[in-house]
Amino acid sequence: MTTTVAVLGTGIMGAAMARNLLRAGLEVRVWNRTPERALPLADDGATVALHAADAVAGADVVLTMLFDATAVREVMNDAGPAMRQGAVWMQSTTVGVDDVPELAALADRLGVTYVDAPVLGTRAPAEAGKLTILAACPIEIRPELAAVLGAVGSRTVWTGEDGASAPSTKLKLVANSWVLAINNAAGEMVALAESLDVDPQQFLRLIEGGPLDSGYLRIKTGLIMDDALTPPSFSASAAGKDAQLIVAAASARGVRLDGAQASADRFARAVHAGHGGEDMAAAYFASFEEK
Fold first, then answer.
1. CA-wise closest residue to 146 among 15, 26, 245
2. Could you say which of 20, 136, 207, 288 would form a disulfide bridge with 212 (CB–CB 3.0 to 4.6 Å)?
């Protein structure tokens, strides 16, 4: 039997994941709030649904890759009742730690299994099917997800059996805190170097091959210096949303993250200046006063 997967959300990540599911021979239905963003997937063999409920009806696995928890709640409250009893909901949108129990409770009411399954990776690994999936669900459900996980990722990290306790989302926010810190450090380094009439490449040569070097640092500085911020691997708007989730999760548990708050503020300024749709390296522009 061919697994039927409904992908709700066909942005940078969702569209790439849908294409890899199709390449793996799975039956794929797609839906996006803006239908025009889903239509190109019809050329790849996907069934494009105009309504989310039509996409999920009868599907074995429903994969949500939307912008935030608010979008997930709205879409699944509307479409969820059309899911078949016993289906699996693979929730891959990055949401807040405290959003997960509510979403898992919704899954219980719908009679489906909730999988806490955010992913690590941006446009290139998503398109190559090389994402790392962080997943938590009962062991007996995992074989049902094997084909899906194998199609969209090169590695699955099982974080637990209770998706409602958000083990994968917690790990994802920890990982993102590091990713966003390097991204913002890259932008600040370039801005500082330029202000001091130092070639940023001179700094990169200085640290080359040593413990301070970082491939990710080089990628992000390269995007800034080459003015190659579009198309984004991961947008500044989405990165800013994640930064706020990180700060909120820490604050709710009595932990103050000054660096993460500064990161969130930088993304907010970059978005306000019109760079929200560019790669998150565009946080670089937050270093300059608005004119």
1. 26
2. 207
Residue 16: how many CA atoms within 13 Å on its side-chain side? Answer: 19
- Residue type (1 letter), 62: V
25 Cβ contact partners less than 8 Å away, ≥ 6 residues apart: 2
Both structure tokens of 270:
């970059």
Phi, psi of 194 (to 5 degrees): -60, -40
Using one digit for the tens of pLDDT, what is the confidence trace for 72-108? 999 999 999 999 999 999 999 999 999 999 999 999 9
Q: Give tens-digit pLDDT for 266-282.
A: 999 999 999 999 999 99
Q: Which residues pair with 114 in a beta bridge?
A: 89
Q: Where in the chain is the domain with CATH 1.10.1040.10?
A: 170-287
| Start-to-end C-alpha separation, the chain | 60
What is the homologous superfamily of the domain 4-163 according to CATH?
NAD(P)-binding Rossmann-like Domain (3.40.50.720)
DSSP 260-273: HHHHHHHHHHHIII
Average pLDDT of every residue of the chain = 97
Using the predicted structure, report yes or no on whether residue 1 has a pLDDT greater than 80. Answer: no
pLDDT in tens, 123-182: 999 999 999 999 999 999 999 999 999 999 999 999 999 999 999 999 999 999 999 999
Task: Identify the CA nearest to 33 among candidates 17, 49, 12, 56.
Answer: 49
170-287 topology per CATH: N-(1-d-carboxylethyl)-l-norvaline Dehydrogenase; domain 2 (1.10.1040)
Q: Which residues lie across from 4 on neighbouring strands?
A: 27
Query: What is residue 160's three-state secondary structure?
Result: strand
